[in-house]
Amino acid sequence: MKLKKIVLTGAAGRLGSYLREPLSQMCEALVSTDITDDLGKLYANETYVQADLASYDAIFPVLEGAEMVVHFGAIVDEKPFEELLGPNFVGSYNIWEAGYQQGVRRIVYASSIHAVGMHKKADFIGIDAPHRPDTFYGLAKCFTEDLGSMYWDKRGLESVHLRILSAAQVNNARALGSWLSYDDLIQLVTRAVDTPSVGFSIIYGVSKNDRAPVDNAKASFLGYRPKDNAEQFAEAVLAETPAPDLTDPGEMLQGGPFAKVDLGQSGIAQMKIVNDKKTV
């Protein structure tokens, strides 16, 4: 049975571009939102609303009648705290509070490995690992996970927090463990939406990689069963990769480059992310 209305935030982003079509197939009406002026061509049952996450007055009417919100909107890099405060901290509060006031049943949130980025990869952490943010960006993910937990405990608003490791092309050694393919991303979000009851849940967003550094066993009830494996890229990637520096936190810790940059300094700038955004 299709949902009546889903709201997707961050629809103009790279990951949002891959979620729009499958989400549109799960509901009668998909409302996509972002801060860009124009989203371009829309799917048959999709509408676009320009809205700033940092403005409660802008977000509140967008959520009217929504059963679920897939919240991927944010600044997706480390920045000075003041720049992240509006979209990443206040924006999350606005989504949860407006969602509660509008009767939303569930929020599916793009959290991140950077909420636990200072844990060692060798520790093979599970979903119950304590928060150890590697940046202000990671701190915003911790805040929103705790926000979701509180709104479930106090107000009965369900949420699933997807700790995405790296959803981008595999062109570096870290990604051999951290890769989340776009097909697996879609499956992950779909399971977060269609699982009958989730309460407050955390799950790692990672594909079925031989070298995955995290354990999703305690989130198996969500039904996420990834199919892709980054090992297919290993030979080519490792041939271009120098021997690792075992004293480098970017090599040893879950957060990778984000674990080694100074607070407020870009982590994305240390990576080779290809913008292979999907077009309608």
TrEMBL record:
<comment type="similarity">
    <text>Belongs to the NAD(P)-dependent epimerase/dehydratase family.</text>
</comment>
<keyword id="KW-0520">NAD</keyword>
<dbReference type="InterPro" id="IPR001509">
    <property type="entry name" value="Epimerase_deHydtase"/>
</dbReference>
<keyword id="KW-0560">Oxidoreductase</keyword>
<dbReference type="GO" id="GO:0016491">
    <property type="term" value="F:oxidoreductase activity"/>
</dbReference>
<dbReference type="InterPro" id="IPR036291">
    <property type="entry name" value="NAD(P)-bd_dom_sf"/>
</dbReference>
<feature type="domain" description="NAD-dependent epimerase/dehydratase">
    <location>
        <begin position="6"/>
        <end position="164"/>
    </location>
</feature>
<dbReference type="Pfam" id="PF01370">
    <property type="entry name" value="Epimerase"/>
</dbReference>
<protein>
    <submittedName>
        <fullName>3-beta hydroxysteroid dehydrogenase</fullName>
    </submittedName>
</protein>
